[in-house]
């Protein structure tokens, strides 16, 4: 009888953020497949777990998937873990899950920490609809092209970004989205956890450590109506609902319609 492939979510920072079920599965599994065995070993040692582990990462995923599938078919229970968070979400594991499912092997998710959901919940941006785009392209030209595809998306946008590219990415967000509200979530669940809020332009002027992986959130687009069809009051209200403060919303509508801030403020009050 084939074993079970467990997809075990692990802490994204704080080692206390792990479920009792996840700890049980890690203890009971026959083998752990880890994105980085050294990183996983820290978690295992913290909870006194001693278990055989092998590496499973983007550079050996193809061959390791075959090896692990063979063990699963022989009856072994395998727990797949990434360095942090939920496996397969911008992390390796897709090949193995596809092959296991095709072979009739049971694939069982063990839910837990997720940087995407943690950042979204605390961002202050709308949570009714969101789009997760993973890591943005490294080159600015490709990054702007990728961002432009989501310009009219009526959902909160979420991306991951490396610390050494965060300022360049903010410049690209400013160029593509203008005064749309942006939230940077840094060092989630760790001692120096931080949320920075504002427009991309405002955040570029802020002083913050460019270290620790960033989760970048961008407010949703306004409803897809022509500018002329939307009353000033509604246009301002839509931006406030998307996460802007009132004055930023007024500035954005004024720029969009070629009006003065004072005039937009007056018309918004009148309507």
Structural notes for this entry:
- The protein is of the alpha/beta class and 271 residues long.
- Helix 3 (61-73) packs parallel to helix 4, helix 6 crosses helix 7 and helix 9 packs across helix 11 (261-270).
- A 5-stranded parallel beta sheet has the order 3-2-4-1-5, sandwiched between helices. A 5-stranded mixed beta sheet has the order 6-7-10-8-9, with helices on both faces.
- It has 3 domains: 4-110, Tetrapyrrole methylase, N-terminal domain (Cobalt-precorrin-4 Transmethylase, domain 1, 3-Layer(aba) Sandwich), CATH 3.40.1010.10; 115-218, Methyltransferase, Cobalt-precorrin-4 Transmethylase, Domain 2 (2-Layer Sandwich); 227-270, no CATH class.
- It has helices at 20-28, 37-46, 61-73, 94-102, 115-123, 140-148, 166-177, 200-205, 232-241, 246-257, 261-270, and strands at 4-8, 31-34, 53-55, 78-81, 106-110, 130-135, 156-161, 181-186, 194-199, 214-218.
**What profile does the largest beta sheet have?**
5 strands, parallel
- Round the mean pLDDT to the nearest integer and report it: 91
Q: For the record, what is the CATH homologous superfamily label of the largest domain?
A: Tetrapyrrole methylase, N-terminal domain
Order of helices and strands: EHEHEHEHEHEHEHEEHEHHH
The rough form would be described as elongated
Number of contiguous helices? 11
CATH architecture of the largest domain: 3-Layer(aba) Sandwich
Tally the beta strands. Answer: 10
Q: What distance separates the N and C termini?
A: 70 Å
Number of domains: 3
Strand order of the largest sheet: 3-2-4-1-5
Regions with little confidence, pLDDT below 50 for 5+ residues:
none
Helix content: 40-55%
């Amino acid at each position: 009888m084939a074993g079970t492939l467990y997809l075990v979510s692990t802490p994204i920072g704080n080692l206390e953020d792990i479920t009792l079920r996840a700890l049980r599965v890690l203890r009971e599994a026959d083998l752990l497949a880890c994105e980085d065995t050294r990183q996983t070993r820290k978690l295992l040692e913290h909870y006194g777990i001693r278990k055989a582990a092998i590496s499973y990462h983007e550079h050996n995923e193809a061959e390791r998937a075959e090896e692990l599938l063979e063990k699963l078919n022989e009856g072994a229970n395998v727990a797949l873990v990434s360095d942090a968070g939920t496996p397969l979400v911008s992390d390796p594991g897709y090949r193995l899950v596809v092959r296991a499912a095709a072979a009739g092997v049971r694939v069982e998710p063990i839910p837990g920490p997720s940087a995407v959901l943690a950042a979204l919940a605390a961002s202050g941006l709308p949570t009714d609809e969101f789009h997760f785009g993973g890591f943005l392209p490294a080159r600015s030209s490709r990054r702007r092209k990728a961002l432009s595809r989501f310009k009219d998306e009526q959902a909160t946008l979420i991306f991951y970004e490396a610390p050494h590219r965060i300022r360049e990415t903010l410049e690209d967000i400013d160029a593509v989205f203008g005064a749309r509200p942006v939230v940077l979530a840094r060092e989630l669940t760790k001692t120096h956890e931080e949320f920075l809020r504002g427009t991309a332009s405002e955040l570029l002027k802020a002083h913050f450590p460019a270290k620790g992986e960033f989760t970048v959130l961008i407010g949703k687009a306004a409803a897809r109506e022509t500018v002329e069809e939307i009353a000033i009051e509604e246009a301002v209200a839509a931006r406030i609902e998307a996460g802007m403060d009132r004055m930023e919303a007024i500035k954005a509508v004024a720029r969009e319609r070629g009006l003065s801030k004072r005039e937009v403020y007056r018309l918004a009050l009148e309507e």
